[in-house]
């Protein structure tokens, strides 16, 4: 579970990999998109394309920041 710092939305995903590894991947993708320089038209086009993950989409489209420090596992498969 990765909560947003700005709104009450939370990303819930599933992975068989370590939480820290997956969180770092999400974070890098969000930061890469946030740091990209866009003209107004390019920014609108980037916002309309589906990104690698719902986390990246939320960061880009809403201009929000995820609360990476409060990422946690909510359930594990036995």
How do the helices and strands line up, and which of them pair or pack?
Blueprint: E1 2-3, E2 10-11, H1 19-35, H2 40-48, H3 54-62
Antiparallel strand pairs: 1-2
Helix pairs in contact: 1-3
Could you characterize what this model shows?
There is one protein chain. With 78 residues, the protein is mainly α. It has one domain (2-70). The protein is 45% helix and 5% strand. The protein contains three helices and two strands; from the N terminus they run E-E-H-H-H. A two-stranded antiparallel ribbon has the order 1-2. A hairpin with a 6-residue loop joins strand 1 and strand 2 (10-11). The two termini are 18 Å apart. The mean pLDDT is 85.
Summarize the structure.
The protein has three helices and two strands. It is mainly alpha-helical and 78 residues long. The chain is elongated and about 45 Å long.
Tell me the strand order in the biggest sheet.
1-2
Quaternary status of these chains? single chain
Low-confidence stretches: none
* H/E element order: EEHHH
Structural class: mainly alpha
Strand content: 5-15%
Q: What percent of the residues sit in helical stretches (DSSP H or I)?
A: 40-55%
What distance separates the N and C termini?
A: 18 Å
Spatial extent as radius of gyration = 13 Å
Overall spatial form = elongated
Biggest pleated-sheet summary: 2 strands, antiparallel
> Number of DSSP strands?
2
Total tally of structural domains: 1
Q: How confident is the prediction overall: mean pLDDT?
A: 85
Protein name: GIY-YIG domain-containing protein
Region (Disordered): 30-50
Organism: Nothobranchius pienaari
């Amino acid at each position: 579970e990765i909560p947003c710092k700005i709104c009450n939305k939370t990303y819930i995903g599933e992975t068989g990999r370590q939480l820290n590894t997956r969180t770092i991947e999400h974070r890098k993708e969000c930061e890469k998109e946030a740091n990209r320089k866009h003209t107004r038209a390019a920014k609108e086009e980037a916002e309309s394309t589906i990104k690698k993950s719902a986390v990246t989409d939320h960061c880009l489209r809403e201009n929000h920041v995820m609360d990476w420090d409060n990422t946690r596992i909510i359930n594990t498969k036995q």
